[in-house]
Amino acid sequence: MPKKNVLVVGAGPGGLTAAMILAAKGYDVEVFEKSSSVGGRNARIQLGPFTFDTGPTFLMMLNILQEAFELAGKRVEDYLEIESLDPLYRLHFADGRVFSPSQDQETMRAELERFSPGAYAQYQAFMEYEGKKIERIAPCLQVPYGSLRDYTRPRFLKAIPYLDAHLSLHKHLGRFFKEEALKLSFTFQAKYLGMSPWHCPATFSMIGFVEHQGGVHHVKGGLNRISHAMAKVIEEAGGKIHLNTTVQEVLVNKGKAYGLRLANGETVHGDDIVLNADFGHAMHHLVDSRHLKRWAPKKVASKDYSCSTFMIYLGLDKVYEEVAHHNILFAADYKKNVAEIAEDFVLSEDPSIYVQNASVTDPSLAPPGKSTLYILVPIANNKAQIPWDDLRQRYRDKVLDIVERRCGLTDLRQHIEVEKIITPDDWEQKYNVYQGAVFNLAHNLTQMLYFRPHNDFDDLEHCYLVGGGTHPGSGLPTIYESGIISAGLILQRDAWFLNR
């Protein structure tokens, strides 16, 4: 019996998840990746002897990653060395106070009472409520939404009282925490969605719960190792991964996707296409607009998109042992900062900054006595039309000034051996990220669930979407979930074929 052939466009986390499941189930799978390495925004950056993650550095909801490997008949523990972090991260406020949440309850009690007397009871109420919320909502994020009828399913109806979609994330946190700093401590996770806590639906308050309940994890060698592990599983199952191979067009005939045209002129035919390219980029560049109806380029351009990021990767000749693995530096006026990003589309004079000092946990990322430093600044996407060629160095200097002053990284500049910067222009031009919006389509109410591009793509038959631009959304765990969902749709459709 001939195998069905699945062509995967892009070796990002969603595409690799779908590919390894389908390859394990007997499909003839081929993955086409334009870069020289797998991972997409989850790829490795190698600067001499220093190793960095390009994008995601937080690993949460480990159960979803474990499920993906189990569906491919594997154990994630056989491929990756994963460590839980404590504290989860260190939060630095402009007034000099520092808050270091822990998954250990006694440590957390002491830390909360030190930071804000009486706050532990507030925290317990939050965790109790969010535990019930995720119990109801999680099943809704594990299934596709291809029809409005999906809103009438019992699982969704049970979740409605806990969706809290009528509230902003910040307002919802005000139901539990009295102090503004504590609200921010449980709303900054909106950055994973590229949104402002004052506009992000309160549905996503469960992200903070997930961090505290399930922990934040690090993979030895960086989170990029997950993509390499998935690639190994694909190849062990007989799948093929073509690196340095750019897809120029998804081939369509009478509304059905049937193959790919590569940049080298070659044409490859397949029974199904799994599209892991950035959604906005794909709709503008990989599918002829004649074949698009619901998601025509003009419609795609009119949607709301997440913020972008300004990235600095530094290889240092020393290790800052006193600096935590994950650090968040809040702007003095955080609300103004996020408004400047998402509404005003201007550069903040006082930005918020994330700093990863992973070498304190994982010495394998740098030579002995040296370390890596990863700096991320949420900023406006390319709708802002910021002239990055002119501002790149000046903004880099501003960010390093803040990091040196507020994160304990004194004399940082004296210890830089290697350096790389990525701006929103780079995200768009070099990584094919539409508008440089690294967290993809925004997660407002009109762009969630059924109203997000469907996993079984609306406009093309035999075309399935994975990644942050489809359901359930952006962030590593949900992107893995998108790969599980899309692979499941193909398997469900072909059950008669596979079992005959």
Describe what you observe in this structure:
With 500 residues, the chain is α/β, with parallel strands linked by helices. The protein has three domains: 205 residues, FAD/NAD(P)-binding domain, CATH 3.50.50.60; 109 residues, no CATH class; 124 residues, Guanine Nucleotide Dissociation Inhibitor, domain 2. The protein has 16 helices and 19 strands. The strands form five sheets. It has a seven-stranded mixed sheet. Helix 1 packs parallel to helix 15. The longest helix is centred in the first third of the chain and has 19 residues. The chain is globular and about 65 Å long. The mean pLDDT is 95.
Show the helix and strand layout.
Blueprint: E1 5-9, H1 13-24, E2 28-32, E3 44-47, E4 50-53, H2 62-71, E5 82-84, E6 90-92, E7 98-99, H3 105-115, H4 119-137, H5 154-163, H6 169-173, H7 180-185, H8 206-214, E8 217-219, H9 224-236, E9 240-242, E10 247-253, E11 256-262, E12 267-269, E13 272-275, H10 279-285, H11 297-301, E14 308-316, E15 326-329, H12 334-344, E16 353-356, E17 371-379, H13 388-406, E18 416-422, H14 424-430, E19 463-465, H15 476-493, H16 495-499
Parallel strand pairs: 1-2, 1-13, 2-9, 6-15, 13-19
Antiparallel strand pairs: 3-4, 5-8, 6-7, 10-11, 11-12, 14-17, 14-18, 15-16, 16-17
